[in-house]
Amino acid sequence: MTDMDHEEALIRAFILPTRRDRYLECLKKPKKRARFCAELAHFKALDPKYAIGILPRLQHAPLIHELLIAKGAGQKCWVISESREMDGRELDLKTALKETVGGGMGTLISCVPGKLGYFEDEDNRFILER
């Protein structure tokens, strides 16, 4: 699976249908990608049908990692993030979560393309699952 296929599966699975095409176009162009990633700080386009809130007592990187592994995540993931160091990269899932959880940077993590992921912004943390 190519990088764009991974990102497309993530957007098509977990973003509101009215915003999908626009966001997919944004991800293809560096300037527009930067604007999209900046929106992740206060993101309002997740499809609520597939965003599962995480109990406050479980909102820690090791516990979220366990939840994702139990749901079928592998050791690697794909990241779209406000963090330039992480954006557009395949990372170890533990590392991605350690850098994301509580970091204050809007981030989408794809664990199983189009099926399982994680989202965090400045206010929320969700497991993304279809």
What structural class do helix, strand and pairing data support?
Answer: alpha+beta
Strand order within the widest beta sheet: 1-6-5-4-2-3
How far apart the termini lie comes to 19 Å
Q: Please state the average pLDDT score.
A: 93
- Rg from alpha-carbon coordinates: 13 Å
SSE sequence, one letter per element = HHHEHEEHEEE
Task: Kindly state the percentage of residues in helix.
Answer: 40-55%
Question: What is the overall shape?
Answer: globular
In total, the number of strands is: 6
In words, what does this structure look like?
The chain has 130 residues and is of the alpha+beta class. It has one domain (3-129). The chain has helices at 3-14, 17-28, 30-39, 61-70, 93-100, and strands at residues 51-53, 76-81, 89-92, 107-112, 116-120, 125-129. The protein has a six-stranded antiparallel β-sheet with strand order 1-6-5-4-2-3. Helix 2 (17-28) packs across helix 3 (30-39). The longest helix has 12 residues, at 3-14. It is globular. The two termini are 19 Å apart. The mean pLDDT is 93.
What can be said about this structure in brief?
This protein has helices spanning 3-14, 17-28, 30-39, 61-70, 93-100; strands at 51-53, 76-81, 89-92, 107-112, 116-120, 125-129.
